[in-house]
Design brief:
This protein is about 85% helix and about 0% strand. It has about 20 residues and is mainly alpha-helical. The protein is rod-shaped. The termini are far apart. About 0% of the residues are buried.
Length: about 20
Amino acid sequence: MPSKAVAKMEANTMEKRDIDD
């Protein structure tokens, strides 16, 4: 998996966590 895709997924997860919280 390209590191860019991984970074994007991680950023997405953090954003979702922020919204869920």
